[in-house]
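Can you give me the bound-state structure? Components:
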Amino acid sequence: AQKITQTQPGMFVQEKEAVTLDCTYDTSDPSYGLFWYKQPSSGEMIFLIYQGSYDQQNATEGRYSLNFQKARKSANLVISASQLGDSAMYFCAEWDSNYQLIWGAGTKLIIKP
Amino acid sequence: DGGITQSPKYLFRKEGQNVTLSCEQNLNHDAMYWYRQDPGQGLRLIYYSQIVNDFQKGDIAEGYSVSREKKESFPLTVTSAQKNPTAFYLCASSIDEGVYGYTFGSGTRLTVV
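Here's the bound-state model for the whole set.
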């Protein structure tokens, strides 16, 4: 069965520093997509970034970028110049031909002033 | 603005009662999903529906029921058979099978009293 692993239950990062959140996945499907979502304390899930398995370049969206290493089945989220508002839970998820998103357990990120 | 509306935001239930959580979307999305989230954990799929009048069980469907009579609406009923219903419930929708990701509602926090 597919599995998403986020090895960092929690992280503290100083404001304005860059932060990398780890995500590894396990799928045998050649076609898949990888997503990162942010969940602030209010509860809603906010889409951050998407990487397709056939994309040649790493995805970027503003301060977010995805370090996609296909051979290692790794899809780490990089947040540059962190801000206090980045404090939240972050979830990695994988979509494949089973038509469902498989979710990691999440990483709680706290940005220190 | 298009989006997903979940109501109520907070819900209290006495043991033995059925309760229904509302989820409405005006995005014209075909697929809709219900997830359960427990503290410090990722999302677990309860039910999903890819088309009106059809729905499929997810990983933890026992004690829950759904209907999809209209494209815009996907209510979730938490029945008395659900032994541990206290959790945060998220509704989501997607174009087609979700290859472009999901849009989420703001969630309903259910507490059994």
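A couple of observations. The two ends of chain B are 36 Å apart (CA to CA). The interface with chain A takes residues 40-45, 48, 50, 58, 88, 90, 92, 97-107, 109 of chain B (CB under 8 Å).
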